[in-house]
Design goal:
The protein is an all-beta fold and 302 residues long. 0% of the residues lie in helices and 52% in strands. Strand 10 and strand 11 form a beta hairpin.
Amino acid sequence: MVESNNKIDLSKFTFSSGAELLNGEVIMISHPFGMDPEKKPKSVFLIRDNKGNWSNAGSVSWLPEGISSNVNEDKIFLTHWGGSCLEFNKADTIFSNVYKTEDDKNDPPSEIRFSKLVDGELYVGGTNRFIFKQVNTSWEEISIEAMKGEPMPSSFENITGFNSQELYAFGWEGVIWTNKGGKWSEIETPTDDILLDGDVFDDKVYIAGQMGIILEGRGSQWTELESEVSDDDIDSVCTYNDAIYFSNNFNILRLKDGELEVFVESTPEFSTFKLFKGPSGLWSVSDKHLALYNGKEWKLMN
């Protein structure tokens, strides 16, 4: 099933990621088709309302590193690699409330590589293994000096966890650091591949990345899931309903009842790259396609 009631010609844009508000509106990071990201970067924020109509919420001349939705506050946060954060709520028509990891006169201490909501709280982080937590309209550093040591350069690619008292930050060299009760410690892992995304499911943490690696664990106990399903880099990990999903450039994988399977194979009519979830269900994004899974079937939105 494909939506066709659009005010905007979606064929003129490519998608990179998105997030959903509590009222069912979806805000997509999109780019003009054929854009040169190095010479003339541009990001256009397209809004799809709960009736399937699309509108333009503005644009910026840079490429966002992350987008996160806090449905509890009905807000969406958009993060720039240089440390800026734009905030959007349904009462606005454009993104507003810009704030940075450092003041405007200084470069940020970290190139932002991710933004992620954990239990309703927003975290950003990246190179040099810096991590910041949003506190009102400013950032509070929660990383420690011990995690910023050799080898350099180093980077966290993402973060996940159950709440602020149990966080897991991960990235280059297969590194995982956990924050239990406010204290950080490094975890020994069975890989040195780059870890790219993660989520929690059924009281466990799942972290995935290069070469299709999927780590399962909690605390200091971690194992690698044995699988012959795919060895392509996993870019996105997302829990939805009674399963956890993993996406790469070719497939969406699903882990359910202890079995990892290919859930959706990419075709010319349906491609995938990123996953995110919202009140409406599980969303799949690629440069060409946007699709929604409601637990029973997929619906193409463009």
